[in-house]
Amino acid sequence: EAGVAQSPRYKIIEKRQSVAFWCNPISGHATLYWYQQILGQGPKLLIQFQNNGVVDDSQLPKDRFSAERLKGVDSTLKIQPAKLEDSAVYLCASSLPGQHNSPLHFGNGTRLTVT
Amino acid sequence: DAKTTQPNSMESNEEEPVHLPCNHSTISGTDYIHWYRQLPSQGPEYVIHGLTSNVNNRMASLAIAEDRKSSTLILHRATLRDAAVYYCILRDDTSGTYKYIFGTGTRLKVLA
Questions:
Q1: Which of A99, A103, A19, A30 is nearest to B98 (CA)?
Q2: Closest Cα to residue A75, out of A55, A57, A52, A56?
Q3: Which residues of B26-35 are buried (b: 16+ CB within 10 A; e: fewer)?
């Protein structure tokens, strides 16, 4: 099966600019997660979708970050405006619905550098 | 969110067994214990998970303490490709959200 696809692989922007990341999960996976991983730290959950509904976004900085999953498949994560501390790898993961206890499948992430 | 505690780093010799410990004293009765690992420049990958009983798969074994307050990931013969950061996670099933909260993990170094 094809894995979780993310693009772009790398992105460099200046502070106060905007940026968007795209994720295509594994076919049939209803649950989609966005994580932020700062260098040297574990991934931090930003937002979790079940189909096209938000299950948890308690750690998403909503003043600058937004995410959508309009048709319950692909998802985009946007940052506007970016700050220096947003430099990180943004990871997308997908899984079958939680009650199936299936593992998370991660993409290789988008590395964002804010200068 | 239930927390896990892992050593920051460990070393092992190639082809020897490795025991990676994890403490989770605040685990609740319905929390599953999951292990993921992250190779350099890659996203995390699933290793194994369990609830109460010990589990084995082709990658590793998971030994869970009887009181479930700790667990150990066992790599039976470490190879250089096993060098990675290993994360022990309690899957939070509160209110059906099924959240995976990562800690800082254990960086495993395998010596040739």
A1: A99
A2: A52
A3: ebeeebbbbb
Mutation site, B59, B100, B106, B107, interface A, largest A CB count within 10 A = B100
Summarize pLDDT for B36-82 with one digit per residue, the tens.
999 999 999 999 999 999 999 999 999 999 999 999 999 999 999 99
Q: Can you read off the two tokens belonging to residue A115?
A: 């200068």
Alpha-carbon separation of residue B61 from A51, B58, B71, B107 (angstroms): 33, 8, 10, 18
Cα–Cα distance measured from residue B91 to residue B64, given in angstroms and rounded to the nearest whole number: 15
Q: What's the token pair of residue A69?
A: 């999953």
* Contact residues for B45 (Cβ-Cβ < 8 A; gap 6+): A106, B36, B37, B38, B39
d(CA A81, CA A65): 8
Best of A10, A29, A39, A45 to substitute, by most chain B Cβ atoms within 10 angstroms, is: A45
Contacts of A79 (CB under 8 A, 6+ apart): A18, A19, A20, A64, A65, A86, A112
Question: Which residue, among B97, B108, B81, B76, has the nearest Cα to B11 in the 3D structure?
Answer: B108
Identify the pLDDT of residue A69: 95
